[in-house]
């Protein structure tokens, strides 16, 4: 379109000089040298690994931009713009992308020539890859899921975009000082970020505060006008996401807040320099920091501002793109699907209504019809403390018109409920978007449910639980069809091919190709070799190599030396009471005490174990931070006990993040996913561990259940109370005097008598299972947890059987590819396909 307007003479020139760079070693080396001397303004004489990384990154970036252009832009015209298909927009406040370079090289099949080119220039590619800092714009599972989904959307050639916030500070870095977690700001943009393209020309004005006035339009209709009190500018930064083995390169648009220039000028003119500078700071504050809580809601105004800022900019960007096509509004839902990743973007609902009704002049009912056909909503938790509620006065102050619209949505909704269920006042109160608390608050999940044509949970059990509990009354009101399940998935590109290249290569050798990376159920072809001794050896040799790699990382980051022949038992995830890392370390203490009582003959029979922990605690989550301290205190004692030696080691790996996970996960023999039944919506690391040939020790919760259904009960050790029992068990714990599990009592006694240092430090933690009545049922599950641990040891003694289990784990993980999940979303929720 644009190029067509260039006079033919220049057009020929444009075409003549559009010479794509080659993918051969020479061209790549040339581009790295070029970026070294120009982009970095450095010379071969002052290069180090970081410079080598930067120059290489810029060279890779060039290729991604070219693919991005071809995918997105009108003038080159490819699928997205020529066919103008229905697009899907994934709105997520978090994208936990991790590193980009290795991923891009593997996606484009360029790892080999880049390895060779950098080698010729005097570098080792592994060292360069290590120089990259993680993009850590997320807390945990929810943000990483968004990243896996973007990878699948790109790989499967979907016309999709993500929208997020460009936080100046991502999730904090964790330092361990004297066994305690300290938080250090993650200023990840210190040395430019080659993986983003600043789009300073794309900027959207986002209004806040002010007041609403009414007026009559030319048809005599009452209309509303919101006059903002403050306007902040949203500037776009685009991050290309390359698909694997396709040129399709999609985009995540991250918004950054900037002050609006006109405002500054006004203050400058009146001589109020300080005020202008203050405003600048205030505007930049909005996207400055990622809130570091997982599964916990904080009702801060700045957080609400972030949400609206992001939603408003994203929606206007989407609307602008739609408007270019001159279609009627009624076709909007045929062109646009918007997925709400949790309730964080739910303000998009009143914002779309505001645009359609206030600005575009549509009737309410038509606008509502368009809105509900556009949105889908994914719920990720049932924990009450995580469900978003915003205070009505705060909303009224920050977004006065949106609050009115929310009240109107609620009014119309309750009227339809009233019609179908006359005189059921209780029902009206339970489904109301407005909670009659002091002050009133808005239940964002209810708003999202009412405004979306599909609501999904993230694993089968979780999707059932939301229907039975938090959204139960909506089944009655909206019917069961609105609710559906979309079991989470993970990208095998990052979590197998990139993280575990040796295993990926072995599998490809066995299956004849790398096709399994795009069609994961092909892994099933490994099953028939599970018993093959030669294959088992190759398989377990790779496992051993991966364990050595982790052993080195542990030594480097903690100073602890572990034996790679021991059983590696891993629990890495955010630290949270419901995830029960506390139970794990209590189990470790039990093991330690048991070892201490053994004689030499008994010790000979023991399977040496390395228990590995990792994960961040929210900075304000006191109990979670005490769990970290306890793990480190136990490690201190056990690891320095000469009498124990290699039989037991306890490691806390600091600063768990995506790139560390890529080293940890391939080294697992077993991983723990031991949440109280009914609390972990899905979990996704469970899938990554099993894909890498590990067994699971877990509760009957989240995706563990579906993993069990796929891999079979010889590959997974399930224990503990079932979710249906949890409510009763809690009641019993709370109101009857049930004695604590005796083994647990003995463990608590060891902590209290000072075996692991000053006992008073841990008293608040112990209180959660004694005075706190054990809400997460550690005492109830402790016995069966210990039994399962013993079964793990027994199984590990049989090396041949274990190898077979390990192979079968990987072979049976086909279902858990994020490709499968994305296809289900596309078909059942977004109604898009690629053809
Ligand atoms: C996680 N949620 C679930 N939330 O806990 C996990 O079971 C699931 O596998 C995963 O989502 C993907 O579906 C989660 O990570 C958060 O971290 C939110 C961040 C923003 C504040 C509220 C919690």
UniProtKB/TrEMBL annotation:
Lineage: Eukaryota, Fungi, Fungi incertae sedis, Mucoromycota, Mucoromycotina
Family annotation (InterPro entries): Glycg_phsphrylas, Glyco_trans_35, Pyridoxal_P_attach_site
GO molecular function: glycogen phosphorylase activity; pyridoxal phosphate binding
GO CC list: cytoplasm
Entry EC number(s): 2.4.1.1
Enzyme class name: transferase
Substrates-to-products reaction catalysed: [(1->4)-alpha-D-glucosyl](n) + phosphate = [(1->4)-alpha-D-glucosyl](n-1) + alpha-D-glucose 1-phosphate
Gene3D superfamilies: Glycogen Phosphorylase B
Residues modified as N6-(pyridoxal phosphate)lysine: 688
A biological-process GO annotation: glycogen catabolic process
Keyword Nucleus: no
Source organism, top-level taxon: Eukaryota
Function: Allosteric enzyme that catalyzes the rate-limiting step in glycogen catabolism, the phosphorolytic cleavage of glycogen to produce glucose-1-phosphate, and plays a central role in maintaining cellular and organismal glucose homeostasis.
Similarity remark: Belongs to the glycogen phosphorylase family.
Record keywords, A-Z: Carbohydrate metabolism, Glycosyltransferase, Pyridoxal phosphate, Transferase
Cofactor (UniProt): pyridoxal 5'-phosphate
Record-given protein name: Alpha-1,4 glucan phosphorylase
NCBIfam families according to UniProt: P_ylase (TIGR02093)
CDD domains: GT35_Glycogen_Phosphorylase
């Amino acid at each position: 379109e644009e190029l067509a307007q260039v006079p033919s003479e220049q057009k020929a020139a444009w075409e003549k000089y559009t010479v794509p760079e080659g993918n051969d070693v020479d061209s790549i080396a040339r581009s790295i040298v070029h970026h070294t001397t120009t982009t970095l303004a450095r010379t071969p004489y002052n290069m180090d690994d970081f410079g080598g990384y930067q120059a290489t990154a810029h060279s890779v970036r060039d290729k991604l931009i070219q693919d991005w252009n071809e995918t997105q832009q009108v003038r080159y015209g490819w699928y997205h713009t020529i066919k103008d298909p229905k697009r899907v927009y994934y709105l997520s406040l978090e994208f936990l992308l991790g590193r980009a370079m290795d991923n891009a090289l593997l996606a484009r099949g360029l790892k080999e020539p880049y390895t060779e080119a950098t080698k010729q220039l005097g570098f080792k590619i592994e060292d360069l890859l290590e120089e990259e800092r993680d993009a850590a714009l997320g807390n945990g599972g929810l943000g990483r899921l968004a990243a896996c989904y973007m990878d699948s959307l790109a790989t499967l050639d979907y016309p999709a975009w993500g929208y997020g916030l460009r936080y100046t500070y991502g999730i904090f870095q964790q330092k361990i000082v004297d066994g305690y977690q300290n938080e250090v700001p993650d200023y990840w943009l210190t040395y430019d970020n080659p993986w983003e393209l600043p789009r300073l020309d794309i900027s959207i004005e986002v209004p806040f505060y002010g007041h609403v006035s009414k007026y009559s339009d030319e048809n005599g209709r009452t209309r509303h006008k919101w006059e903002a009190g403050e306007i902040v500018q949203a500037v776009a930064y685009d991050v290309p996401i390359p698909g694997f083995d396709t040129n399709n390169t999609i985009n995540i648009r991250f918004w950054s807040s900037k002050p609006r220039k006109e405002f500054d000028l006004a203050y400058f003119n009146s001589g109020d320099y300080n005020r202008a500078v203050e405003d600048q700071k205030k505007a930049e504050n909005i996207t400055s920091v990622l809130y570091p809580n997982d599964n916990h809601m904080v009702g801060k105004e700045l957080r609400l501002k972030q949400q609206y800022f992001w939603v408003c900019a994203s929606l206007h960007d989407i609307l602008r793109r739609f408007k270019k096509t001159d279609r009627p509004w009624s076709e909007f839902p045929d062109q646009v699907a918007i997925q709400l990743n949790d309730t964080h973007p739910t303000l998009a609902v009143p914002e779309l209504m505001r645009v359609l009704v206030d600005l575009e002049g549509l009737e309410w009912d038509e606008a509502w019809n368009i809105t509900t056909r556009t949105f889908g909503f994914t719920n990720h938790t049932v924990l009450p403390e995580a469900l978003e509620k915003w205070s009505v006065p705060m909303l009224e102050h920050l977004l006065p018109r949106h609050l009115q619209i929310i009240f109107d949505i609620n009014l119309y909704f309750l009227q339809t409920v009233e019609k179908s269920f006359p005189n059921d006042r209780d029902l009206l109160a339970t489904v109301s978007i407005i909670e009659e608390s002091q002050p009133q608050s808005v239940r964002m999940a209810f708003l999202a449910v009412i405004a979306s044509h599909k609501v999904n949970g993230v694993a089968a059990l979780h999707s059932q639980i939301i229907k039975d509990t938090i959204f139960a009354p909506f089944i009655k009101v909206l019917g069961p069809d609105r609710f559906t399940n979309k079991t989470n998935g993970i990208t095998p590109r990052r979590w197998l091919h990139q993280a575990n290249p040796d295993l990926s290569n072995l599998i490809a050798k066995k299956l004849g190709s790398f096709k399994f990376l795009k069609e994961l159920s092909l892994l099933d072809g490994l099953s028939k070799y599970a018993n093959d001794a030669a294959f088992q050896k190759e398989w377990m040799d790779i496992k051993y190599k991966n364990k050595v790699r982790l052993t080195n990382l542990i030594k480097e980051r903690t100073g602890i030396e572990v034996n790679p022949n021991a059983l590696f038992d891993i629990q890495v995830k955010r630290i949270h009471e419901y995830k029960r890392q506390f139970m794990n370390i209590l189990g470790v203490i039990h093991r330690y005490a048991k070892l201490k009582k053994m004689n030499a003959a008994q010790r000979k029979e023991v399977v040496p174990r390395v228990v590995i922990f990792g994960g961040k605690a929210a900075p304000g989550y006191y109990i979670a931070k005490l769990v970290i301290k306890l793990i480190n205190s136990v490690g201190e004692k056990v690891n320095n006990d000469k009498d124990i030696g290699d039989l037991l080691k306890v490691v806390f790996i600091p600063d768990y993040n995506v790139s560390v996970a890529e080293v940890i996960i391939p080294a697992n023999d077993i991983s723990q996913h031991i949440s109280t039944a009914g609390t972990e919506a899905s979990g996704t690391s469970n899938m990554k561990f099993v894909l890498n040939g590990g067994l699971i020790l877990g509760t009957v919760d989240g995706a563990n259940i579906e993993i069990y259904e796929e891999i079979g009960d010889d590959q997974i050790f399930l224990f503990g109370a079932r979710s249906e029992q949890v409510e009763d068990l809690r009641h019993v714990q709370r109101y009857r005097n049930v004695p604590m599990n005796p083994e647990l009592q003995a463990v608590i006694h060891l902590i209290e008598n000072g075996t692991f240092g000053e006992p008073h430090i841990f008293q608040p933690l112990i209180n959660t299972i004694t005075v706190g009545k054990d809400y997460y049922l550690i005492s109830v599950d402790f016995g069966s947890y210990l039994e399962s641990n013993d079964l793990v040891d027994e199984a590990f003694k049989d090396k041949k059987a274990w190898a077979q289990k390990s192979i079968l784990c990987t072979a049976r993980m086909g279902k858990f590819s994020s490709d499968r999940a994305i296809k289900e979303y596309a078909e059942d929720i977004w109604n898009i396909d690629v053809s």
